Amino acid sequence: MSVPTTTSSAGRPSGRGAAEPLLSVRDLSVTFGRGRKAFTAVDGVSFDVAPGQTVGLVGESGCGKSVTSLAIMGLLPARGNTVTGSVRFDGDELLDLPGDQLRDRRGRDVAMIFQDPLSSLNPVVSLGVQVAEVLQRHRGMNKDAAMRRATELLDKVGIPDPTRRLKEYPHQLSGGMRQRALIAMALACEPRLLIADEPTTALDVTIQAQILALLKELVQDSGTALIMITHDLGVVAGLCDEVNVLYGGRIVERAQRHDLFAKPRHPYTGGLLASIPRLHEERGRRLTPVPGSVADNIPWSSGCAFAPRCASAIEVCRERTPELVQDRPELGPDRLLRCHNPLESNPMDEDRDAPRGEETDR
Asked: Which residue ranges does the record annotate as region Disordered (predicted)?
């Protein structure tokens, strides 16, 4: 059954019923260095994001999530890397845009919330000047009008006493306030696409929930397309419509959120889910982490990069590279999987039936 298309207050279609993707990424690859020392951080990644849709890029540190976002934004260093593939935004190829045209798009049509707000904000410039600068650059506002709008934005993202905060510097704000300030800067020009790179890292759970609620409200109210980059599957469960699981720079599984949590098919996805502590379980139950680290990969050209860490690996996994193909249709629409020996049951269900560890008194 098709999902009806709704129209946001901004006049853009929202929800999964949108006919055309706003952002279309095809075979995106990023290689650092040259020759024998070359390292491919992103390897043939493809996905779409429609207006009003939230798409998650999920995986451990080093899987290529942040590099993908920086390549989309055109923020990778001019030297020392090679970017290939296609990144089309509203029909325009971003990788081919001249620098001045790309700078015009950034902040106005495409914005990004960075992972570390303290290093992303200028430490010697007041918060109000930094937020107002975006409006002056892309909306042509004068200083007074930009500062009034900056006050409204800080209030919108939940920063108390915004008029006073405009005069303060980043080091005078808490981590949660700095992150909210970054969100205010990203939302200043009402971008059509927002990329959030681990926006809740190092924040307490209360502030995390407030920031995620703010992003969810943004998508619902304005029809903004959102790419959520995270390693936290709890964030994915509460926010994302579609999930792309990355490993070794490649997408290894794609599914709708509910389908992915109900029946993960790739052993890496299953391992990520099995390693999450669950509040309803009794004390003393041991977690089941994914063994090894990302340094244990083998090259994709030699087989499956996850094979050295995979409990389900068979001989073919170390001999032939798995392709990203359509999974069994009965498991959910548009599911893609890159695996020779996929899971047939949910590791989280198996873990519930496993014997519990010995409890100790505190």
From this structure: 1-20, 328-362
